[in-house]
Design brief:
204 residues, mainly beta, ten-stranded mixed beta sheet, 2 helices, 58% strand
Length: 204
């Protein structure tokens, strides 16, 4: 646990230009056995400079499933990601600055294998009880999604695969200019999306 806790803090500090914090890391062998389940508990990411008072994301937990045997040997392949009760506030100021541009530029020198301990071999992701607000001051556009539940599954390691998604939301609001095109509309969407990364082709 101490190694994974140190690894999570190290990766966040190295990759993000933001104020990051989380309460604890939980580890379980039973939640997604035979995979190793790791939870980052009470996560918050807040911007800097002009976004220093704006929390980009907070979440009760982010649950990650890892390949157990590889994790024991020090290699961390991420297979599943789940966000539990996330609150996401995406903001674009009138000057065009966006608060989600927080990743640091990659170093010019090629990193060694030891400095890249995380690998994404995603098969499934999910959002439970989410709240998302998008406020574009430049484009005079605002979107709010209340109690979002969304899941997607597919072989993200393949060049071509089908992404199967299920989505529900209690209330979606979309305002452009002074016109509310959607006002607290309950929504349910089941969607299969064909993804061909080589051909850059996406089929609904």
């Amino acid at each position: 646990k101490d190694k994974i806790l140190a690894l999570a803090k190290k990766e966040m500090n190295e990759k993000l230009n933001a104020v990051t914090d989380f309460k604890d890391v939980g580890i379980s062998l039973f939640r997604s056995f035979p995979r190793l389940s790791v939870s980052i508990i009470d996560l918050s990411i807040t911007g800097k400079d002009e976004f220093r008072n704006d929390t980009l994301i907070s979440a009760k937990s982010i649950d990650v499933a890892l390949d157990l045997m590889k994790a024991i040997n020090g290699t961390y392949d991420i297979l599943n990601i789940g966000l539990n009760t996330p609150r996401i506030h995406a903001i674009v100021h009138e000057n065009g600055a966006a608060n989600w541009n927080i990743t640091k530029p990659e170093p010019e020198t090629k990193p060694t294998k030891e400095s890249e301990p995380l690998s994404l071999k995603l098969r499934k992701y999910s959002i439970e009880n989410g709240y998302i607000e998008y406020n574009n001051e430049l484009g005079k556009m605002r979107t709010e999604i209340v109690n979002l539940n969304h899941s997607g599954s597919g072989d993200f390691t393949s060049d071509a695969f089908t992404l199967t998604t299920e989505t529900t939301a209690d209330a979606i609001t979309f305002v452009n200019g002074n016109i509310a095109y959607l006002n607290k509309v309950a929504t349910k969407i089941d969607l299969d999306l064909g993804i061909d990364n080589k051909a850059h082709k996406y089929t609904f």
